[in-house]
């Protein structure tokens, strides 16, 4: 495993017990609305949810969509264990759980109609490998759906406020709630280093996807990307 992957794995092992609570606190609950945008793109068929974490996307799909065969994939066993517990508590018992790396997925070519990844692509060591793998495992006509935080440009009217909240408030919330300031400092840093929307859209295109679109949510703090394997 790449050194960065090892570090990220350690981060999520540390934050797993309080991950869902921290998401609610940091986003004021808005992450649930953002994730609904992902679910709205799914109709029926086979779905691979990568970097699924504690499984909230997969569980929501299972509860709100019929005829979707869902596979959950995450590199971190502790996060998957919490996801399984969440699914059982939600009486969602038909999910497949797989421990796997987004950069080297343990699935055959042309396996899924949908590939989703929410707040996970910025944590991989090599984005181009993860995007290539997404393309590989999707069937012809399959849809790529990615939800991710976006850095704000300095010209953005909310830049200073968002920057202050990100670097001064979130790590301290992490210390109080999860007893782990360093991990949440990493998560904030990873957002600031992620490409702007047009640049990441180009990376998606470089992996042979077509019809790439992106929609800014919450003033561009979060972006929903969609693309097709044609």
Automatic annotation (TrEMBL):
Listed EC numbers: 2.1.1.163, 2.1.1.201
Top EC class for this record: transferase
Binding site for S-adenosyl-L-methionine: 54, 74, 101-102, 118
Lineage: superkingdom: Bacteria
Key words of the record: Menaquinone biosynthesis, Methyltransferase, S-adenosyl-L-methionine, Transferase, Ubiquinone, Ubiquinone biosynthesis
GO molecular function list: 2-methoxy-6-polyprenyl-1,4-benzoquinol methyltransferase activity; demethylmenaquinone methyltransferase activity
Pathway the protein acts in: Quinol/quinone metabolism; menaquinone biosynthesis; menaquinol from 1,4-dihydroxy-2-naphthoate: step 2/2; Cofactor biosynthesis; ubiquinone biosynthesis
InterPro entries listed in its UniProt record: SAM-dependent_MTases_sf (IPR029063), UbiE/COQ5_MeTrFase (IPR004033), UbiE/COQ5_MeTrFase_CS (IPR023576)
SUPFAM superfamilies per the UniProt record, alphabetical: S-adenosyl-L-methionine-dependent methyltransferases
Signal peptide start and end residues: none
Reactions it catalyzes: a 2-demethylmenaquinol + S-adenosyl-L-methionine = a menaquinol + S-adenosyl-L-homocysteine + H(+); a 2-methoxy-6-(all-trans-polyprenyl)benzene-1,4-diol + S-adenosyl-L-methionine = a 5-methoxy-2-methyl-3-(all-trans-polyprenyl)benzene-1,4-diol + S-adenosyl-L-homocysteine + H(+)
Transmembrane segments: none
CDD domains for this protein: AdoMet_MTases
A Pfam family this chain is assigned to: Ubie_methyltran
GO biological process assignments: aerobic respiration; menaquinone biosynthetic process; methylation
PANTHER family according to UniProt: 2-METHOXY-6-POLYPRENYL-1,4-BENZOQUINOL METHYLASE, MITOCHONDRIAL, METHYLTRANSFERASE
Biological function: Methyltransferase required for the conversion of demethylmenaquinol (DMKH2) to menaquinol (MKH2) and the conversion of 2-polyprenyl-6-methoxy-1,4-benzoquinol (DDMQH2) to 2-polyprenyl-3-methyl-6-methoxy-1,4-benzoquinol (DMQH2).
Family: Belongs to the class I-like SAM-binding methyltransferase superfamily. MenG/UbiE family.
NCBIfam families referenced in this protein's UniProt entry, alphabetically: MenG_MenH_UbiE, PRK00216.1-5
Protein name, UniProt field: Ubiquinone/menaquinone biosynthesis C-methyltransferase UbiE
Organism: Ehrlichia japonica
